[in-house]
Amino acid sequence: MTYFDGIENIQFEGRGSKNPLAFKHYNPSEIIAGKTMEEHLRFAVSYWHTLTGEGTDPFGAQTNIRAWDHFSGLDLAKARVEAAFELITKLNIPYFCFHDRDIAPEGATLQETNKNLDTIVDLIKQNMRTSSVKLLWNTQNMFSNPRFVHGAGTTCNADVYAYSAAQVKKGLEVGKELGAENYVFWGGREGYETLLNTDMKLELDNLAKLYWMAIDYAKEIDFDAQFLIEPKPKEPTKHQYDFDAATTIAFLQNYGLKEHFKLNLEANHATLAGHTFEHELRVARMHGMLGSLDANQGDLLLGWDTDEFPTDLYSTVLAMYEVLQNGGIGKGGVNFDAKVRRASFDPEDLFYAHIAGMDCYSKGLKVAAKLLEDRVLENIIDNRYRSFKEGIGAEIVSGKATLRSLEQYALQNNPIRNESGRHELIKSIVNEYLLSE
User: Fold this and answer.
1) Are 117 and 170 contacting, i.e. CB atoms less than 8 angstroms apart?
2) Which residues bind Mg(2+) 1 (predicted)?
């Protein structure tokens, strides 16, 4: 059965094309900075928003029109697999991502739930064998079911913790079976509502123990995927422990976990944390922790995670600038953790949305590569910090300076002359590259 009749495989037609079902900037074979676009971007479809999203919101019921919605139970799960591979193939996207409960329904017991999961994993394997689609990463949903009301790895209930550990174990086995290149941990409810009833130290200690168990079991079953943690500051809990890149890195360092993880960073989560996406990417890159991207954007006028498809060119330029500076994304990718708007309910809107996001990141890649090739920002930064390359500045950087030597230098009362940061000029230069590339 097919689910997107009338839509052919999406092709690159270039900037002059008026075809809404064609790429204007994403040309997978085009060479940028020594690699193809496909190699740079490693796009992925998010199973949860794309296949299970219904268009609901806190004030309204389902609006999405999906050809598979008349099914239920395992039949619905099987239909979604067929639809997923049809959509992914027609979009020419190489990867997909999922939570365990996205692909298969829960049963009355853990045994029944795992049996459901095995059935769908077998079907996914069949579709992977007959296509070029691969699994970028999988993860476990330990936030939707009411059992996780107090968290999973940070729960106050040892029975829930044990269930969570069993779910992680199964997730790692599924990842190995499907050849996942990464495995993600997202602490959907790993946080607190109030400190008045929270033992934060115990919760964080237990979360670290769960991560160590996962590391040990992955080694036991020879699952060599890159482990990723995805920071998010709030929503659904008031405060989540993986607040942002810096907080997450500090946690990993504190528990000796840093060498085992990198970060999967999401643009909309950066917004919720009060940061720009490029800030989060820069922090991760500085610490050698940049692992993968969840590509979306938020609405700055709304205070929640809107998960819109990325169309902000300025943001994608600066994001890809960080990725290129990082030497690439490695085993990670650019996953569209994004959903069509509630009013965009037709099946073809899924194609329009992904095309828009893929073109936006492709344009960002091209502009970022040109900026780096011309050393535009590097030259500006080198010039701004040139005082640290000679004299007293060089002594500071080399570690030779002391408070006494710096005082002696300051007592010479040489005139201090600051220079303008040229903030507006720099932005106008970036704009010119964006408009001309």
Assistant:
1) yes
2) 230, 266, 294, 337
